[in-house]
Design a protein that fits this description.
This protein is an alpha/beta fold. It folds into 3 domains: 166 residues, Tetratricopeptide repeat domain (Serine Threonine Protein Phosphatase 5, Tetratricopeptide repeat); 195 residues, 3-Layer(aba) Sandwich (Rossmann fold); 130 residues, 3-Layer(aba) Sandwich (Rossmann fold), CATH 3.40.50. It has 23 helices and 14 strands. Helix 20 links the parallel strand 9 and strand 10. Helix 10 packs across helix 11. It starts with 5 loop residues before the first helix and ends with a strand. The N terminus is likely disordered. Pfam families: Peripla_BP_6. InterPro entries: Leu-bd, Peripla_BP_I, TPR-like_helical_dom_sf. Belongs to the leucine-binding protein family. This is Extracellular ligand-binding receptor.
Length: 538
């Protein structure tokens, strides 16, 4: 057996991690040197298997099949059942199910065969009953095939005489896990989390295009850190990451992956068109799907199992309205940026305000250069007669925040200014000025900077990723921590039921959550700075 350097093994292990993180092209490049049988002996067989895994995930099915078929012919390779399973998945993907069913029949490991039966069902459940009947005649032992045939016959409305005879044969079939009604629904005690994110949100593919400032990468790093921490604390979970690449065809391919079909929850995607595809799939398969960053209600409206991790437009609008009504003055100046969220927020808030008796004296979409004119229109100078009692700015844009800070400070206005909590993160944010100038912050899963656990998180993140966490890393960590607390082997896997039962949920790094009776975080505190400490006002 050749001797390998520690560095060589590190590259091999790094390749396996890249597969787990969804960076399949990167993993394949790392594994290519190990495919040399003469140089790496038996290690090359395992490298070939992981190479095939990466190729499969990258939808390069012919390449995966080539590697897997060579392993089937390799004497002494211990993972041949795993090879048969993955090769069967390739055949299913290429619409040659008989080849897949033949391989599944040859699997001897009972647990893996059970997974193969589940994959059979998921790939064949849309097939015609005539095709399924022929396949059943060849592979009657395959529980997944029988379940697909049984459900197809039950849902097609009427049966021919031969179909009725066939149905009578299988309707009371005893399956390897429970009866025919529980074969698919039965859950193990392991939390399976599918992470579906657009790492290459500019439409590229491969880890080589990801930069350190990639906000999706930062979000994922926070998620991964929380899940690995949960595993080390004894939570039984598996997770798998997929890159949508902002490509609908890639998303549809991801939804065919067997891991998605057994997932207990899906984290992501982010963008509307991808979210719609995944939310439809989640509703059909009764899997909760949670958007990590969006506030937009349309991402969950009409989708029974879709959730927002952050507050919805409606929740934020209602909270800001209630807060503004506490002031003696009723005149509100409203500014907002041109993003979809901020335009929707402004429209929702203005409509609610009109119905509640608040007066919107100014309602303006703004850019950086518009802020001077916006302030001038309100006559906020020290000697002026202000036309508004409260200012509300819906924007996460630092180019709008920066001139607002400067104008408020220079004018010395005592008017309450209500802004998004994202303004706290800007490098130029001056906490002393924000406290003195009457700024109030709309909670949007806000990080509690006074939380003693925050330093531990920052230190752990720095040790792992060699950089300090961004707001997206905080959000990813908190989301994954939240998921593992709500559903697990002790609490059970009914996401909404557990949320309703929990009422208010303490945050780990944030101020907390309330999902009871809704599918978004309904906890929207208004915060202000008191002696330099971020404090909940109500």
């Amino acid at each position: 057996m050749p001797a390998f350097s520690q560095e060589g093994f590190e590259q091999f292990e790094q390749a396996k991690k890249q597969i787990q993180q969804g960076n399949q092209s990167e993993a394949m490049e790392l594994l290519r040197p190990y495919l040399d049988k003469e140089k790496f002996a038996s290690l090359s067989d395992y490298a070939r298997f992981h190479f095939a895994r990466a190729a499969y995930e990258n939808r390069q099915f012919e390449l995966a099949k080539e590697a897997l078929n060579s392993l089937l012919d390799t004497r002494g390779f211990a993972k041949k059942d795993d090879v048969r399973y993955l090769l069967a998945l390739c055949y299913f993907q290429q619409s040659t199910p008989n080849d897949a069913l033949r391989l599944i029949k040859e699997i001897s490991d009972e647990d893996l065969k059970e997974e193969a039966y589940r994959a059979t069902y998921n790939f064949l459940k849309v097939s015609a009953s005539s095709s399924l009947a022929v396949q059943y005649g060849l592979f009657p032992e395959n529980d997944g095939l029988v379940m697909a045939l049984k459900q197809r016959l039950e849902t097609q409305g009427s049966m021919s005489t031969n179909e009725r005879k066939l149905y009578d044969q299988i309707k009371n079939r005893s399956f390897s896990k429970g009866d025919g009604n529980t074969f698919l629904a039965e859950k193990d005690d392991v939390l399976d989390i599918a992470i579906v994110l657009p790492f290459n949100y500019e439409g590229r593919s491969g880890a080589q295009f990801l930069k350190a400032n990639n906000f999706v990468l930062q979000l994922h790093q926070g998620i991964k850190l929380a899940l690995e921490q949960a595993q080390s604390n004894g939570v039984k979970l598996n997770f798998k990451t997929f890159d949508t690449e902002r490509n609908d065809a890639k998303v549809r391919g991801i939804l065919e992956d067997p891991f998605l079909q057994k997932a207990d929850i899906v984290i992501g995607p982010l963008y509307p068109e991808e979210t719609a595809l995944v939310a439809n799939y989640a509703a059909k398969n009764k899997i909760p799907q949670i958007n990590p960053l969006s506030n937009i209600d349309d991402n969950i409206n009409g989708y029974e199992y879709a959730y927002l991790f952050r507050p919805s437009i409606k929740a934020i609008s209602q909270k800001v309205l209630n807060y503004c009504r506490k002031f003696e003055g009723r005149r509100v100046a409203l500014a907002y940026s041109g993003t979809s969220r901020d335009e929707l927020l402004a429209g929702s808030f203005a409509e609610m305000a009109r119905k509640s008796g608040l007066q919107i004296v100014r309602n303006q979409k703004v850019s950086t250069r518009d802020m001077h004119e916006f302030f001038e229109s309100l006559d906020l100078s020290a000697n002026g007669n202000p036309e508004a009692d409260i200012m509300v700015v819906f924007s996460d844009d630092p180019n709008i925040a920066s001139p607002t800070f400067g104008l408020v400070e220079s004018l010395g206005a005592g008017m309450p200014v209500v802004v998004m909590e994202s303004w706290l993160y800007f490098d130029f944010a001056n906490y002393d000025m924000m406290e003195a100038q009457n700024f109030h912050f709309i909670g949007n899963n806000t990080v509690d900077f006074n939380n003693e656990l925050l330093d531990d998180f920052r230190e752990n993140y720095l040790n792992v990723y060699k950089d300090y966490p961004t707001s997206f890393a905080y959000m990813g960590y908190e989301l994954a921590d939240f998921v593992t607390k709500v559903i697990n082997d002790e609490e059970g896997f009914d996401f909404q039921k557990n949320l309703d039962r929990s009422n208010f949920i303490e945050g780990n790094l944030t101020f907390g959550f309330d999902f009871s009776g809704v599918k978004f975080n309904n906890y929207v505190p208004i915060l202000s700075l008191v002696d330099g400490v971020l404090t909940i006002e109500d």
